[in-house]
Amino acid sequence: QVQLVESGGGLVQAGGSLRLSCAASGRTFSSYAMGWFRQAPGKERVFVAAISRGGTTVYADSVKGRFTISRDNAKNTVYLQMNNLKAEDTAVYYCAADTAMRGSPPLGYPHRYDSWGQGTQVTVSS
Fold first, then answer.
1. Contact status, residue 33 vs residue 56, Cβ threshold 8 Å
2. What does the alpha-carbon distance between residue 71 and residue 53 come to, in Å, rounded to a whole number?
3. Whole-angstrom Cα distance, residue 69 to residue 34?
4. For residue 88, with 0-12 CB atoms within 10 Å meaning exposed, 13-18 middle and 19 or more buried, which class applies?
């Protein structure tokens, strides 16, 4: 199973920026769809952004225009650039990979993914 390690979380003021990274083990990273999800205290894990193996990106409405997902297949890494952060972005952010290359359900569904990282905390102070 692929191992995913997130980094880049931290404490930032509202309006600030952070870039999360997710490094994956394995040799077939370029074949995986990758996603970012987040979970705030007392709430369910929700979709943030995803990128297909072909580079197609999908975003939750709450982060469109502020967050950008990208991937560097040479480095086996997916990134989440987060700009204009808001207090409601505070959560643990999780990276996920579709290593089985299912192709379904759509990228925004957690059941699409079979490997998950341990999460990284993002706290936005208002």
1. no
2. 9
3. 9
4. exposed
The secondary structure of 24-86 as a DSSP string is: E-SS-GGGSEEEEEEE-TTS-EEEEEEE-TT--EEE-TTTTTTEEEEEEGGGTEEEEEE-S--
Q: Which residues contact 56 (CB under 8 A, 6 or more apart)?
A: none
What are the phi and psi torsion angles at 95 (to 5°)? -95, 145
Report the amino acid identity of residue 119: G
One-letter amino acid at 124 equals V
Whose tokens are 């705030």? That residue is 40
Q: What is the mean pLDDT of the chain?
A: 96
Residues 6+ apart with CB under 8 A from 14: 85, 86, 87, 124, 125, 126
Task: Give the tens place of pLDDT for each residue, 60-82.
Answer: 999 999 999 999 999 999 999 99
Nearest-angstrom CA–CA distance, 94 and 102: 20
Q: Which residues contact 103 (CB under 8 A, 6 or more apart)?
A: none
